[in-house]
Amino acid sequence: MDKKVTVIGAGNVGTTAAQRIVEKNLADVVLIDVVEGMPQGKALDIIESAPVEGFSASIIGTNNYEDTAGSDIIVITAGLARKPGMTREDLLNKNAEIIKGVVQNSIKYSKDAIIIVVTNPLDIMTQLAQKVSGFPSHRVIGMAGILDSARYRYFIAEALNTSPSQVQAMVLGGHGDSMVPMPRFSTVNGIPISELLPADKIEAINNRTRNGGAEIVALLKTGSAYYAPSASTVEMVQSILLNENKILPCSVLLNGQYQLNNVYCGVPVRLSAKGVESIIELDLTKDELSALKASAAIVAENVAQLKI
Ligand code: A3D
Q1: Could you report the per-residue pLDDT of 152-196, keeping only the tens digit for each?
Q2: How many domains does the chain have?
């Protein structure tokens, strides 16, 4: 392949994303983790499926950043999940240390890469990655809106007993309880969902979407979602590598758009080979705009608290 993607963190999201990238023949992949042997073992297991799956992209596992040199995209999934006794703030500071380290190590070898952050708390970690890297903000992007929108799209399809691929829907804002589902921009084959579902059902779907991550954690009991998160990450990777210019909700640095400044927040953008090709500014209602601003305010507060 003439493209190279590094995936940092060979856990559930990272490995599944790596698998999807090579199975689609999008790029050669380097999977890196601090745990010795684990990324190597997972990469070998994936490459041994190549004869059966029929892909020709390569994948290696490593603990050494030199192997990541010359990457076009760096996907960051390294991080800790909250453990018993750990506060949200402890987790925030622990993952901030991890993000700082992996960004510094990886950009040494890939100065022109585009960084996609997946580690939670998403918008805060993405803003930190941009600051630490010093990269222009169009090259540091957070994945969350595609996942939240995918969940929203699926729940709408389920309620209407129709194909999920027919449903277009948008969730904006920070990745958390304050995310903002946008029923006004949600359609089934062009038909607004308000024509197809009663308002109380739409509100119930909005709430289920906001709790989408927690619903999976409650079922799994150990760990969090990774199939839909990895698929969503790879949609970003593909739009960048193939210069597709897809319009996708991503966490990006806002400077003036939506009356917000110097804060990462989920909004629709066009993703091209450049990274963020442009930010799309929707004409929001007063309520929609204030929900987006409230969501961004939570991100800004947490960024200000980071002990880095
Ligand atoms: P998990 O399976 O625990 O994998 C994390 C991996 O990171 C582990 O293999 C660790 O060894 C590794 N790691 C830790 N520190 C480092 C380091 N310094 N350098 C390299 N690797 C390291 O977690 P997961 O894959 O389920 O989730 C990964 C992250 O993504 C977490 O922060 C999740 O909260 C987040 N996540 C975000 C979304 C969004 O929609 C934003 C969705 C799903 C998961």
Answers
A1: 999 999 999 999 999 999 999 988 888 999 999 999 999 999 999
A2: 2
State the DSSP string of the chain.
Answer: ---EEEEE--SHHHHHHHHHHHHTT--EEEEE-SSSSHHHHHHHHHHTTHHHHT----EEEES-GGGGTT-SEEEE-------TT--HHHHHHHHHHHHHHHHHHHHTT-TTPEEEE-SSSHHHHHHHHHHHH---GGGEEE--HHHHHHHHHHHHHHHHTS-GGGEE--EEB-SSTT-EE-GGG-EETTEEGGGTS-HHHHHHHHHHHHTHHHHHHHHHSSS---HHHHHHHHHHHHHHHTT--EEEEEEEEEESGGG-EEEEEEEEEEEETTEEEEE------HHHHHHHHHHHHHHHHHHHH---
Residues 164 and 138 in one domain: no
Q: Which domain holds residue 243?
A: 145-306
Q: pTM of the full predicted structure?
A: 0.97
Q: How far is the centre of ligand 1, averaged over its atoms, from the C-alpha of 77 (Å)?
A: 4
Interval between CA 25 and ligand 1 midpoint (Å) = 24
**Residues lining ligand 1, CB < 6 A?**
8-14, 33-35, 77-79, 81, 98, 101-102, 118-120, 122, 143-144, 147, 175, 223-226, 229
